[in-house]
Amino acid sequence: MSELVDIPSPGWPLEFGVPGRAGVVIVHDEYGRLPYLESYGTALAAQGFHVVVPDLFDGKAAVHEAGAAELVARVDEGFAQATLDDAIGFPRAAGATRVGVIGLGLGGRLALRAAQSGAADAVVTYYATLGDDEGGIIPCPVMLHRAAGDEFDAFVSRVKEHGTPVTQHSYAASSGFANATVAELVDPQAAALAFARSVYFMQAQLLD
Predict the structure, then answer these.
(1) How do beta strands 4-6 and 60-62 pair?
(2) Dienelactone hydrolase domain: which residues (predicted)?
(3) Residue 179 sits in which domain range?
(4) What is the DSSP letter of 178?
(5) How many domains does one find in the chain?
(6) Among 81, 121, 122, 133, which has the minimal tally of Cβ within 10 Å of its Cβ?
């Protein structure tokens, strides 16, 4: 039996806030675009942003680890990256001159890869970096939220050598701590603190 569930508005990005404002794209983790991201997007939009939340898994999501593993096994990363690139284009087409990306888990990797192309003006990742085989300059400021056990030092050293400004925050919480839909993952205190830090970072980088 499949561990996957259907989500509303499959394959189409959710939008929050006023078009024309600075944009922020939120890229979901391995579990897909679950309901907590609607609350995240609404709260972020209230801080002055036009928020876009794409669906990288074509209408599917998971609420258990087995389902997330199934989604990761079947994801087409080329399609996912193209979907993210299109989402970054939404706020720019609406008049935004600056766009940031917040990526969680798998979405964090994709966010950093998009930044390598110059598509983003700021990036925040949760429990995600790029591997040694995904080298390249990231020409915008980066904030990293590190879960317990994350090994980010090599990545941070590499991008700093290329001149990328990097801010790091560590949490005594497991990977997935911001996923409020999956009870066994979420750490409310860590999630709230990471959100506040992400808002401050994006305001500093994207708002005049």
Answers:
(1) antiparallel
(2) 22-204
(3) 22-206
(4) T
(5) 1
(6) 133
Length of the chain: 208
Neighbours of 184 (CB within 10 A): 10
Whether 142 is covered by a domain: the verdict is: yes
User: Tokens 């991201």, residue?
Assistant: 37
Domain at 39, CATH number: 3.40.50.1820
CB within 8 Å of 61: residues ≥ 6 apart:
4, 5, 6, 7, 31, 32, 33, 34, 67, 71
Q: Are 178 and 126 in contact (CB under 8 A)?
A: yes
**137-190: per-residue pLDDT in tens?**
999 999 999 999 999 999 999 999 999 999 999 999 999 999 999 999 999 999
DSSP 40-89: HHHHHHTTT-EEEE--TTTTEEESSHHHHHHHHHH--HHHHHHHHHHHHH
pLDDT per residue over 26-73, tens digit each?
Answer: 999 999 999 999 999 999 999 999 999 999 999 999 999 999 999 999
